Amino acid sequence: MNAGLRDPQDKSPGENPNQGLNQGSLADSARRIAHLAWPVLIGQLSVLAFSTIDTLLVARYAAVDLAALAIGASAYLTVFIGFMGVVMAISPIVGQLFGAGQHAQAGRQAHQAVWVALGLSVAGSLLLAFPYPFLALSKATPEVAEKVRGYLLVLAFSLPASLMFTVYRGFNTAVSRPKAVMLIQVTGLALKVPLSVALVWGVPALGIPPLGVLGCAIATGLAMWTQALIAWLVLRRDPFYAPFELHGRGLDAPERKSLGAHLRLGLPMGAAILIEVSGFSFMAIFIARLGTTPVAGHQIAMNLVTLMFMVPLAIASACTTLVSQRVGARDALGARRLAWHGLALGCAVAALLGGSVSLLDSTIVSLYTNDAAVAAAALPLIAWVALFHFVDAAQTVAAFVLRAWRIATVPLVVYALALWGIGLGGGFVLAFNLTGAVPASLQGARGFWMSATAGLVVAAVALCAYMAWVLRRMSREAGVVPGVTPAGSG
After folding, report:
1. How confident is the model at residue 120 (pLDDT cuts 50, 70, 90)?
2. How does DSSP assign 230-297, residue by residue?
3. Is-contact 301 378, C-beta < 8 A?
4. Given a cut of 80, is residue 268 above it in pLDDT?
5. What is the rounded average pLDDT for all residues in the chain?
6. DSSP character string of 52-99
7. 10 Å Cβ neighbour count for 463?
8. What does the pLDDT look like over 84-100, one tens digit per residue?
9. pLDDT tens-digit profile of 193-213?
10. How far is residue 390's CA from residue 457's CA, in Å, rounded to a whole number?
């Protein structure tokens, strides 16, 4: 198992992760970012495939189960993504310590992140086991509500595994080892697919009854616990992790200072992610008021944007790792250079993807639907995709770079104002013509997309400007990074 999960290009923890590299070269920065980004991309696509598989299977099983999946999955993602963002604070924290050569301290921070994950698991599992707020908001029928409760109850037991695996993911990302995470995520997907098929539709020969949407939850839970178990075995047996001193003394007791530092970074990170996700989720809910055709067109455009977003998200994750390591090594110039190179790479790739979609919009829509009315609803929205994706990539990379410096509160404020205020609030005004003077061309779903794009433009400009200010200040001061002491010092 270890040999299969070990990347032959992995350096031992004792080696300088930037040794022998020309840090002044844009091409070299791009090569290093790509080396970390592509496994993250494949892993993210594997995770995204979980929900895609469930939707495809349940859509062919029963309409009531599909409705339950829509409500249940939204509730679960709201809880999981928000809490995942808190746990992922381990990545910049460990990245800085790894860059400083403080491997044992990095291992101790992983133990503290486990306590954060366990604490959040209790709160999150209770929310999923008693989902009355979500059911009240959805106004689900009794039949759908019963299925939602069963679906979320199963996932309440899988949430601890998901958050514990997030600790493993964040730690490995921080020490430049994303391929180990990717391989486990792909393994989870390989297990999820046959389990979902068997449990949704049943296997009479094996005595397995058709379970519908409940089968999706059971398959997800089994896959999540399998991933967590594999991660635990890898951490125990792979000699790569020996310098981090993760094992041999049990789980460290909670440390108030470490937990406080984690939560000060993680809570605004989680809130920012929740704002971003909920902003677009509520956008779909409001567009649904316009009818089935507008929301179907919106769903096509949003699904396309989500798939495209995986690329800049992977680049941003790689940037966080590399910049965090340079920050920990007290290489302010290297951190600044990697940040700007990462932003340039993310924007260049986004421009290429967005331009390609603009040129092939009709062809792409035809892959989603043969319904002329739905296609006609989707095409005007896809016209916004190129700009939408470009500014989305810019703000994402900038926000992730700021996390490498343990800065998350300013991005949270920017997201609240830009994505909720301008994007969602402005979209509601335009879509439903609340002023009575909105042109017809900006009403409906197009109004939401224009406002969402405008909100992302504001977020991108604000976060890139703030990133530039932070990088200039840090380069001048080369100051002390909280929680990190220079390698070799006491």
Report:
1. very high
2. HHHHHHHH-GGGGGGT-SSS-SPPP-HHHHHHHHHHHHHHHHHHHHHHHHHHHHHHHHHTT-HHHHHH
3. yes
4. yes
5. 87
6. HHHHHHHHTT-HHHHHHHHHHHHHHHHHHHHHHHHHTTHHHHHHHHHH
7. 24
8. 999 999 999 999 999 99
9. 999 999 999 888 888 899 998
10. 9
Tokens matching residue 182: 């990717």
Tell me the whole-structure pTM to 2 decimals. 0.84
The reported pLDDT for the residue numbered 489 is 35
Amino acid identity for residue 104 in this structure = A
What pLDDT digit, counting tens, does each position of 355-372 carry?
999 899 889 888 877 888
The β-bridge partners of 203 are: 208
Residue 455's nearest CA partner among 411, 391, 396 is 391
Other beta carbons within 10 angstroms of residue 464's beta carbon come to 19
Give the C-alpha distances (Å, rounded to integers) separating 235 from 111, 163, 181, 186, 387: 12, 16, 11, 18, 42
398-459-390 Cα angle (round to 5): 70
Q: Cα torsion for 83, 229, 167, 391, to the nearest 10°?
A: -70
As a whole number of angstroms, the distance between CA 40 and CA 344 comes to 19
Number of Cβ atoms within 10 Å of the Cβ of 203: 12
**Contact at 8 Å (CB) between 362 and 380?**
no
Contacting residues for 271 by C-beta, under 8 A, at least 6 apart: 82, 85, 412
